[in-house]
Amino acid sequence: MSLDEPFNDLALGDWLSTAERHRAEGYRLVQMTGTARPDHFEIMISYDKDYRCTNYRTLLPRDRAELPSLSGIFPAAFTYENELKDLFGIAVPGLTVDYGGNFLRTKTKIPFSGDVTVKKEKVKPAAAGASGSEG
Amino acid sequence: MSNTTIVPFGPQHPVLPEPIHLDLELDDERVVQALPSIGYVHRGLELLAERHDFIEMANVAERICGICSFIHGQGYCQGIEQLMGVEVPPRAVYLRTIWGEISRIQSHLLWLGLSADALGYESLFQHSWRIREMLVDIIEETTGGRVIFGVCKVGGIRKNVDDEVLKAVKGRMRDIQAAFNEIADVFREDPTVKKRTVGVGVLTAEDAHILGAVGPVLRGSGVPQDTRKLGYAAFGELDWEPVVEQEGDCYARCIVRVREIDQSFDIIAQCLDRMPAGEVEVSVKGKRPKGEAMFRLEQPRGEVCYYISADGKKNLERFRVRTPTFANIAPLVHMLKGCELADVPVIVLTIDPCVSCNER
């Protein structure tokens, strides 16, 4: 489930070789994401085999926020890596499909970097009959 | 000089209820490459968790999507409960399981209706949504909500459901299942449905696995992976097996959903037969989550992952949702490569794209 699937620390230098090993052993890439900390970014990745997740965490210093791309090993990594680029501002050299920061067309650039301040906007009155999407 | 043409597909398109864009590179009528782009309505809900009380965030989590709303709320609450070491009463666990499976049925029926419409079957679309409406009525009668249930909370559920009401629900579920079986055969056997879907958008089991496909997309390619097998909620105590089809085409993905509807009716009946008595919530007053956890659930569209990190304060350090549609983008790009332009809408539909989930 979760608590017995802890995040293991992984040196940045082992990032690619760990992915290659998991690919060779038949794991599936489940997810990649980041967390902004004051002086670094944490990058979390999860691989799954037989319903069991193996999770890793690697640290990127803020002044050298660069993560080697896994998209050559796990093709699906390109979506997660473009998301890391757009939300956290992390450079991902070697991306097979690089959107150049335009995968997520967010109004605020790199909103999850930890440097964003919340600004309240004036709410415009909704047009008559306007409705939102359900799902 | 290249002879290919770029045709934009979306963000507004008749088969897309929500905005997603594909740049289709075409050689005559054949797709050479598809390049997706998303983020037109990104809401930054994950960031809200860092600024709002973790109890209130259950309401926000439920609003990630209007179709699988309950399961988002359930996933968030289960993650927080796990971090706090809270054990939810069995009756609440079973009621959560029932509402989750009703959500699965209504989501699949919504998809079947949309796909029938895309195939030109307007009456089949209407019948699918007519039956879906009966389920939405049950949701309203048991929770008070129709789109946002608002019933799941950290520590259990807000509203108990009377045994008499559950008995009536069981009878009505049988009627709804019978009504569904009348239209299910059309999806299974109709020559037009088969002509548009059989052999179209094929994804092999190996590709599905390596591209990280989830849900009916993965199981339609012959991989028997269903996150409910982790045994969360009441699933570990119930008798069921993942629905799998082998062909990996659009028809297989459609049939997986048709069969999963039948299976969900069965799971609901098992839950109603075994419904425990007792309380439906425990107090979490004064408790706060601390630590980190990754929690996985099976939504109608596939596996969803919640990563929660908390340091014992009232707001979370990080809340991350990896939605099934996001995981199915890479398989979609692969399926579109080499297909005919006319098949693009059907292939896109068979991943059941939920942009609202994607743009959390």
UniProtKB/TrEMBL annotation, chain A:
GO terms for molecular function: NADH dehydrogenase (ubiquinone) activity. Residues 21-94 form the NADH:ubiquinone oxidoreductase 30kDa subunit domain. InterPro entries: NADH_quin_OxRdtase_su_C/D-like, NADH_UbQ_OxRdtase_30kDa_su. SUPFAM superfamilies: Nqo5-like. It comes from the Bacteria. This is NADH-quinone oxidoreductase subunit C. It holds the Pfam family Complex1_30kDa. Gene3D superfamilies: NADH:ubiquinone oxidoreductase, 30kDa subunit (3.30.460.80). It comes from Thiorhodococcus mannitoliphagus.
UniProtKB/TrEMBL annotation, chain B:
The keyword Nucleotide-binding does not apply. SUPFAM superfamilies: HydB/Nqo4-like (SSF56762). PROSITE patterns: NI_HGENASE_L_1. InterPro entries: ComplexI_49kDa-like, NADH_Q_OxRdtase_suD, Ni-dep_hyd_lsu, Ni-dep_hyd_lsu_Ni_BS, NiFe-Hase_large. Residues 119-283, 287-360 form the NADH-quinone oxidoreductase subunit D domain. Ni(2+) binds at C65, C68, C354. Pfam families: Complex1_49kDa, NiFeSe_Hases. Mg(2+) binds at E46, V321. GO terms for molecular function: ferredoxin hydrogenase activity; NAD binding; nickel cation binding; oxidoreductase activity, acting on NAD(P)H; quinone binding. It comes from the Bacteria. Keywords: Iron, Magnesium, Metal-binding, Nickel, Oxidoreductase. Its cofactor is Fe cation; Ni(2+). Fe cation binds at C68, C357. This is NADH-quinone oxidoreductase subunit D.
